[in-house]
Amino acid sequence: MRAIILAAGSGLRLGKHTKYIPKALLDINGKSILERQISLLRERGINEIFVVIGYQREQHILKNIEYIFNSRYSETEQLTSMMIARTKIFDDVLIIFGDIIFDSQTLQEVLASNDEIAIAIDLDWEKSYNERPDNPKSLADKVLINQKKILRISAKETSLDIKNQAVGEFLGIIKLSGNGSKTIIKKYEELEKSHVGKFHDADSLEKAKLVDILQELIDSKIEISPISIAGKWCEIDTPNDLERARKIFQNIDI
Fold first, then answer.
1. What is the C-alpha to C-alpha distance for residues 168 and 4, in angstroms, rounded to an integer?
2. Which pLDDT score is estimated for 35?
3. Cα–Cα distance between 178 and 185 in angstroms, integer?
4. Helices marked H in the chain — which ranges?
5. Which distant-in-sequence residues (6+ apart) come within 8 Å of 6 by Cβ?
6. Which SS3 state, helix, strand or coil, does residue 9 take?
C-alpha cells in the first residue's frame, strides 16, 4: 500500500493564511495538515508516501517523503496532479486531497474496503455546512447512492427522484486496488489521446477534478463503491474552515 497526496494548489480562498505557504502546510494545533495525514498513514504501516506539490514548493521540507512537482499547478487541477504521479499508481494505492484533515477511525474505515475503486463518503454531511457560512452546500462534491451503488458524483445539484437513494459528500479519499489502479490509468490515457472540450463539470480535461474522472468511470459502467465513514474529518477551504478544524481536532492527537 502506498499513498499519493495531492497538495499542489494555492488555496486562494484562505487569503492571508496561504500568502506564503501552501494550504497543506497550514497549522492545526501544532502540526500541519500534511504532517497529520502522514502520521496517520505511517501508524497504519503506509510508509511509501508521495506528495504532489506546486504552489510555494520550496516550503515542503518534510523528510522521508518523495515530492513530485506539478509545474503547471496554476493552470491545471486535481486530475492532472494525480496523473503526474501515475508511475506510482499501481497495486493498492490511496489518493488523498491535501486540504482535508481526518482521524484514525476514518482512515481505518477506508482501509477496510476490498473493492477495486472505492471512495470515502460522509452521509451525515449536511449539518456541517451549518458551521461553514462561506461554503454553500452547492459547492460540495455530492454523491448519489442507490442500494450501495454510486450513480452520480458532482458538485452540481443532483436529481433526488430515485427510490431508496442517499446523498453523501465525497471526502477526497480514494482507495484503489491493483485492478482499480490499472482501470483509472487506462481510462485517463484513452481520454488524454482523444478528448477535447468540456469534461463533465470541468472546462477541459486539464481542468478536471477527481469527481470528473470518477463520473467518467461510472458512465463507462465501471463500479465505484462508497465507503460510508463515521469518523471525524474536515475540509479546509476558508479561514472559517481553518478555525473549525482547530476546534474539532483540539483534543485529537495525531
1. 23
2. 97
3. 11
4. 33-43, 78-84, 104-111, 178-194, 210-219, 239-248
5. 52, 78, 81, 82, 95, 96, 97, 98
6. coil
Averaged over successive runs of 10 residues, the pLDDT of the chain (254 residues) comes to: 97 94 96 97 97 95 94 97 98 98 97 98 92 87 91 76 75 99 98 97 97 98 97 95 95 72
For residue 152, give the C-alpha cell.
Answer: 452520480
CATH class (in words) of the domain with range 2-248: alpha beta
Domain ranges of the chain: 2-248
Which residue type occupies 159?
A: S
pLDDT in tens, 120-161: 999 999 989 988 988 888 889 999 998 888 999 998 765 555
Q: How many other β-carbons are positioned within 10 Å of the β-carbon of residue 231? A: 16
Rounded CA-CA distance 223/175 in Å is 13
Nearest Cα residue to 242 out of 75, 6, 3, 21: 21
Strands (E), the chain: 2-7, 27-28, 31-32, 48-53, 66-69, 93-97, 100-102, 117-122, 142-146, 149-154, 165-176, 225-228, 233-235
Which single residue is written with the C-alpha cell 451525515? Answer: 124
Residue 202 DSSP class = B
Torsion of CA 122, 77, 56, 240, to 10 degrees: -40
Query: Cβ of 159: how many Cβ atoms within 10 Å?
Result: 9
